[in-house]
Each structure stands twice: as C-alpha cells, then as structure tokens.
Amino acid sequence: MCRIIIVGFMGSGKTTIGKKIARKLNIPFIDSDSEIEKKYNLSIEKIFHDFGEVKFRNMEFNYIRSLINKSNFVLSTGGGTPCYKNNISFLNELGITCYLNRSVKELAHRLHNSKKRPLIKDLNNDELISFIKKEMKIRDEYYKKSQLILNRKDQTPNNIISLINLLDFHQKN
Predict the structure, then answer these.
(1) Cα 139 to Cα 10: distance, rounded to the nearest angstrom
(2) Which domains does the chain have, with CATH numbers?
(3) What phi and psi, each to the nearest 5 degrees, are found at residue 154?
(4) What is the pLDDT of residue 154?
(5) Distance separating the N- and C-terminal Cα atoms of the chain
(6) How far apart are the C-alpha atoms of 153 and 26, rounded to whole Å?
(7) Spatial separation of the C-alpha atoms in residues 30 and 119, rounded to whole Å
(8) What pLDDT sits at residue 151?
(9) Hey, which of 12, 32, 114, 150 would disulfide with 8, CB 3.0 to 4.6 Å?
(10) In this predicted structure, what is the pLDDT of residue 58?
(11) The dihedral formed by the CA atoms of 50, 18, 98 and 70, expressed in degrees to the nearest 10
(12) CA quadruple 79, 84, 85, 86: dihedral positive or negative?
C-alpha cells in the first residue's frame, strides 16, 4: 500500500509535485481542497465566506479521515490541514508525510496577486509577507512533525520517491 501525503504552506507546490509523483508511481492524485469543493459543490473561497474557517476545517477533517479505507494515492492537503484537530498525527498514521519547506520570500513571490486564496486575496505585498511570517511561526511546528522534511533542493519527484522508498524500507526492517 502506498499513501503519500504532501503538506506545506499555501503556494509551496504541493499540487504540482503531488501530481508528478502520482504520475511517476501510476497511482491516483487527490487534492483535498478540490475534493471538498466537489463534495459540497462550493469553492473553498465560498465556503470560507459563507460558513467561516471553522466549518471548512471540519469539512477538511472529515474528508481526510474518509481516506482511511483508500489505498495507493498521493494526497495534496490544504496549507492549514496539518495544524488543526491533530490532523498531522492522523496524516502520519495514514501514510508517509512529506513537508515541502519553502522560504517566506519564495512563498510571497509565488503567492503575490493570488485572488483565489481566501486568507490572502486582499493583502498587499508587505501584508502578505507579514501574514506568511506569522502563520509560519504557528504552522511550522506541525509541518515539522512530517516524516520527511524536504528543503527546496530536495523537492524533485524522483528524489522524493527515493526518500519515501528508503523511509519505507527502514520502517519495515
């Protein structure tokens, strides 16, 4: 059974890298935000706006727990997923968690002018940098509970697959 869970801050590349890993391993790719949008027929932005972050986090909590009966997938989580309701512990039990660690500067560059992300859509560049710094102080503690912590140079699909295979081998022996 192969379950790979990609975690990290919004804009870190979870979906892009997750899709590449899934394609290389020939297993399904799952984006938790997309699945929640499909299930409720609402955008993440609309869920945040109409129901609030707490309701969204409950939807997210329920969705990731529904994956316990599914095997062989690569899951890209929302940026905040590991930080709520002890989700990081559950994700670590569900599969091999990989944290895509990126610098504040790189995240700000990647997220600049992002209008589809409800938490940052109205922020100017200075506010965005402040937001990322503040959130990373909180979230980093959870992200770093991942089984693999990948710095920028380590974040290639082939390298991640090799590290997962090595980790899996050591866990079995």
Answers:
(1) 11
(2) 3-159 (3.40.50.300)
(3) -90, -5
(4) 76
(5) 16
(6) 24
(7) 22
(8) 84
(9) 12
(10) 95
(11) 80
(12) positive
Among all chains, which residue has been given the structure tokens 């609402």? Answer: 42
**Spatial CA neighbour of 104 closest among 68, 51, 55, 140:** 140
CA separation, residue 123 to residues 34, 78, 103, 114 (Å)? 24, 19, 19, 9
Residue type, 112: H
CB atoms within 10 A of CB 15: 15
Q: In this predicted structure, what is the pLDDT of residue 115?
A: 66
| Nearest residue to 166 via CA among 139, 141, 142, 148 | 148
Asked if the model's pLDDT at residue 169 lies above 50, the reply is: no
Q: What is the DSSP string of 64-83?
A: HHHGGG--SEEEEPPTTGGG
Using one digit for the tens of pLDDT, what is the confidence trace for 16-57? 999 999 998 899 999 999 999 999 999 988 998 899 989 999
Strands 29-31 and 148-150: unpaired
Cα distances from 73 to residues 30, 76, 144, 163, in angstroms, run 7, 10, 22, 17
Which tens digits make up the pLDDT trace of 87-141?
Answer: 999 999 999 999 999 999 999 988 887 767 777 888 888 999 999 999 999 999 9
Count of residues in the chain: 173
